[in-house]
Design a protein that fits this description.
This protein is an alpha+beta fold and 196 residues long. 33% of the residues lie in helices and 29% in strands. It has one domain (2-15, 23-177): Histidine kinase-like ATPase, C-terminal domain (Heat Shock Protein 90), CATH 3.30.565.
Length: 196
């Protein structure tokens, strides 16, 4: 119940016109590595994992919102992939656009469900959702976060073969890691790193 309330509050905040997007440089490769570690802990050794993260660039956006969205995609893969399955997480560029992808060898989704997956409370299988602990709001949150970043979600899935969820960001949001510069440091002085 607490997770449901938290997810409803998150959605309400994302939809509010009084909540403009606060943007900064988001180190997505570092974020992806952190989420990957969380996923391994959630799995408890039940799955095989692969990570591919291009270190060259992050994006301009809101770190808290992006953590919420990308975390939802990874935790779904863990919850819906049977023991012994494989989960691959990647951050790369596709035709100049930054792309976060989660691929799993899980149970897969029937094609007629795919267009509705980001609807609030939409359930492919209610009994399965209850057993995995989902609130039915995770992909709705993903959709809203990506929309606020002019990004979109692509879903490819085949029953019995697994699913691939890709968050695709516009090239205009791609940002190189800002280089810290040294400030101060005169004779006898001290140097400190300052963000740009």
């Amino acid at each position: 119940m607490q997770r449901l309330v938290e997810d409803l509050l998150t959605l309400s905040k994302l939809e509010s016109a009084q909540n403009p997007l606060n943007e900064e440089f988001v180190d997505v490769p570092e974020l992806v590595r952190s989420l990957f570690s969380d996923a391994q802990a959630l799995s408890g050794g039940r799955h095989r994992f692969r990570l591919r993260a291009d270190d060259s660039e992050g994006v301009r956006g809101n770190a808290e919102e992006l953590r919420s969205a990308l975390s939802n995609l990874i935790s779904n893969a863990v919850r819906y992939t049977p023991e012994g399955g494989e989960i691959e997480v990647s951050w790369s560029k596709r035709e100049g656009e930054p792309v976060f992808t989660v691929r799993d060898t899980g149970i897969g989704i029937e094609p007629h469900h795919v267009p509705r997956l980001t609807e609030r409370f939409y359930r492919v299988d209610r009994s399965r959702s209850r057993s995995t602990g989902g609130t039915g709001l995770g992909l709705a949150i993903v959709k809203h976060v990506l929309s606020r970043h002019q990004a979109h979600l692509e879903i490819e899935s085949e029953p019995g073969r697994g699913s691939t969820f890709s968050a695709i960001f516009p090239a205009a949001r791609s940002l190189a890691q800002p280089a810290p510069h040294v400030r101060g440091g005169g004779r006898g002085g001290r140097s400190e790193l300052a963000p740009d």
